Amino acid sequence: MAERTGESPKRRFVSTTVEVEGRTEERVVEVPAFEPTPWDRDAKLTHVGARAPRVDALLKSTGRPGYTTDLQRARLAHVAFVRAPVARGRLTQIDWADVRAHPDVLDVLLHADVPARTRLFSPDITYVGQPLAAVCASTREAAERAVRAVGLRIDPLPHAVTVEAALHAEAVRPGLTNNLMQGAPRVRARGDVDRGLAEAAVTVTREVRTPCVLHSALEPHAAVAEWEGERLTVWESTQGIYRVRDNLAKALGIPLTDVRVICEAMGGGFGAKNYAGAHTYAAALFARRLGRPVSCVIDRGGEQVDTGNRPSSWQRITLGATRDGRLTAIVLDATVPLGIGGWEGGPGEIFHELYACPNVRTHETFAFVNTAAMAAFRAPGHAEGAVGLEIAMNALAKALGMDPLLLRERNIATHDQKKDRPYTGNRLAECYREGARRIGWASREQQRAQAQRATPHRRRGFGVAAQVWSTGGGPPSYATVRLNTDGSADVLTGSQDLGTGTRTILAQVAAEALGHALARVRAVIGDTASGPYAGNSWGSMTVASLAPAVRMAAEDARRALLEAAAGLLAVTPDALETRDGRVCVRDTDRSMTFGEVTAKLGNVMIQGHGSRGPNPKDVGIVTTGAQFAEVDVDIETGVVKVLRVVAVHDAGRIVNPTLAESQLEGGILQGLGFALFEERRLDARLGLPLNVGLHDYKIPTIADLPRIDGHFLDGADPQANHVGARGIAEPAIIPTAPAIAGAVADALGVEVNELPLTPWRVLAALSS
Amino acid sequence: MLPPLVQLTVNGRPLAVAAPADATLLNLLRDTLALTGTKRACDRGECGACTVLRDGRPIYACLTLAHACTGHEIRSIESLGSADAPHALQSAFAAEDAAQCGFCTPGQLMAAAALLATNPDPSEDEVIAAMSGNLCRCGTYPKIVRAVRRAAATLRHADPAGPERAHG
């Protein structure tokens, strides 16, 4: 046994904390062999920070970037689901006789035919839209026709679709003893809210409701499965190829090495495409039984009913403050109907984070009900909680006779109050100032007066809201960078591009670290067979998690390249630098292109390995920002028109401003839909979703487009990770709806505290 | 009995294609002709992802029976241009970052092509009116407006006989 001598050896595996969708996870991680020097805010960078065009933009404009739903295979068969028409009951019989006899129908799957771990096709019906069986046919239309011809016998059971009903009902699904998540409400507190309220000079209380909203990605959930012997390949429209691979191997009881998952391009996820689903398992099972490739694409009705949602919320908020507007107490009581499954991504979290306050208490009741399960949807919990918190802040400002912006500026959280630790940075004060300047906050009364003189039946209003969201990302994430014999470079990692621009950003980071031309670097992603592990594209984590791994891999490859070039140029490696695809001898005009070096090496491979190191200890990493909205409300029709949204966020280093602005615009437009139009309506008696298409369920159209002025503060966060970047996708949606709600209340002089702000709610508020 | 034939022109090629009476133009393009650039997103006339041109006018392929296209000329995204030789609209969409996930993009482009064929200099409001039947969930609308107007300007300043003319 070797004796320890001198310094203790560096530990290779350590634990670190990572925040995902508002949840903190403890993880074991591998410490990278080396950590590149952080790119601080003054680092001179060529590709990182540039407005590089999206690498696959032209391909997307041809319609052929490789979506799962477009995949062509010989003898491809198609699946459709038989879905439950009632909210609760027991399926006692399926009448298949006519269906099975049809020549186009190839196979059917029932509960007894599937592995238990898929949890498919239970005869215990627990919500409308639950898959009860599947049909596979030679065409999609034949499968859909077959499903319509199936007869179902169901013994109905009483159901509960509201929190109130669920609390008094028997268990809404087998395996539950009561309908509360974790058996009890989630209560979290710091300080003493009773004392805080007693100290307050002013208190306000508001009740706020937010709707259940649907992701509504244009590409539905889809999988194509194909077996070669024991080996399964699945093409899936997903946010996590590695997670789908893991889910499939476990459910089917086969080794991971026998499962390959591919996502070349996907048509939107927004949180709903994080796991393998019924469609994935059905495609894989039918493909094995039939010995031919099978596609399962969820139809639009199924997509809107049973692929996840942002659950509705009821919130009662009480705020207390001193006369000069310092918060002394924040109290939330909330209920959330999760659906038949889900997790506690509730509105409470942001109440502990956004504003400085010593006394905070949130009490959240999460109930299982007989509707389809919720799923993460862009800033789950925070988007809902921000509506309640910010409406209450506006009410408090009014009660204090204070500018709502000033009230917010007085209560900026300068540190991470949940964990009593500093932030790596929080420039929310600058976001407020810059946003106020851009919208003309100080002159809003003049703007209002001028507008209302021109159109007397309309009312102009302005609102402001803020945002905080953990965006540090974290390990594990791995990448390989290899130089090909012609000098071009491949970045290999098992990530996927949802439309956020991951492919482009990873190529920019690798080109920067290699000193290469961007056009000569390609990110090869979306295939578990070629890329090492990268996590799901969720939680606004991808850039902060993966860019450091890619940078390290590129620097590792660059080191090897310099060592090879040093011999060829008869100098030492430290005399060399790389620029625009050339290895140059410093202070001379001698150089070689990467391709000249690699050509000399033949098939000796230059490749670098990179991994994401642990997060810094005892520090919080967040993106913050403020959004301002200007609205016009027609007081005769109740129609709200959003004229302008100004968004200013602090997200550390922005790798590509154009792509970042696209993310902001996406979040703002989804937030606008949440504020004004979107709501899944249920028939209260039957638990039946009523608006399951994109006509009755209204997402914003181009005609609803406001002027959007999206802006990021210039900077970098080298303490968060050595690339200096944090996340942006979810922060973008959080303040939009509350800023619009604030602007509508400002326009009308009365509050409308239930979203969406439909014409009838506006008119009802005006007449009250 | 064999299904009846639809006789139509697709992207300049005269074709006779067997299609059942209830087949849609979307079935014909995607499932029979393997022209998958035209997307199936709702299959019920709600989103515009399947927009193609029939005799130059934008239509939803999912709401159009294949047999209603007999004697007509259909143009799909495949006829607009390629990544190597893009139409001015495709170049403008790329330059303005008007595609995020890209799934609605072919339909957006065909609706825009129809607009520019009849209105070479559309205002912002005219772009919005012409494109309001095409949904996008990623939030590309601001950039679509800019891209369509950018392409219009390019086409107005290009040689009218040049390769980048709008389809009429």
Description:
The complex is a heterodimer of chains A (about 775) and B (about 170). By secondary structure, chain A is α+β, with helices and mostly antiparallel strands. Chain A folds into three domains: about 15-65 and about 475-610, Aldehyde oxidase/xanthine dehydrogenase, molybdopterin binding domain (Aldehyde Oxidoreductase, domain 4, 2-Layer Sandwich), CATH 3.30.365; about 70-155 and about 220-295, Aldehyde oxidase/xanthine dehydrogenase, molybdopterin binding domain (Aldehyde Oxidoreductase, domain 4, 2-Layer Sandwich); about 315-470 and about 620-765, Aldehyde oxidase/xanthine dehydrogenase, molybdopterin binding domain (Aldehyde Oxidoreductase, domain 4, 2-Layer Sandwich). Chain A contains 19 helices and 32 strands. Chain A has a seven-stranded mixed beta sheet with strand order 5-7-3-14-11-12-13, with helices on both faces. Chain A has a five-stranded mixed beta sheet with strand order 9-17-16-15-10, with helices on both faces. In chain A, strands 20-28-29-32 form a four-stranded mixed beta sheet, sandwiched between helices. The longest helix of chain A is centred in the last third of the chain and has 28 residues, at about 540-570. Mean pLDDT of chain A is about 95; it is low at about 1-5. Chain B is α+β, with helices and mostly antiparallel strands and about 170 residues long. Chain B has a five-stranded mixed beta sheet with strand order 2-1-5-3-4, sandwiched between helices. Chain B has helices spanning about 25-30, 90-95, 105-120, 125-130, 140-155; strands at about 5-10, 15-20, 50-55, 55-60, 75. Chain B is globular. In chain B, helix 2 (about 90-95) packs across helix 5 (about 140-155). In chain B, strand 1 and strand 2 (about 15-20) form a beta hairpin. Helix content of chain B is about 35%, strand content about 15%. Chain B folds into two domains: about 5-80, Roll (Ubiquitin-like (UB roll)), CATH 3.10.20; about 90-155, [2Fe-2S]-binding domain (DNA polymerase, domain 1). The longest helix of chain B has 17 residues, at about 140-155. Chains A and B meet through helix 1 and helix 17 of A and helix 1, helix 2, helix 3, helix 4 and helix 5 of B.
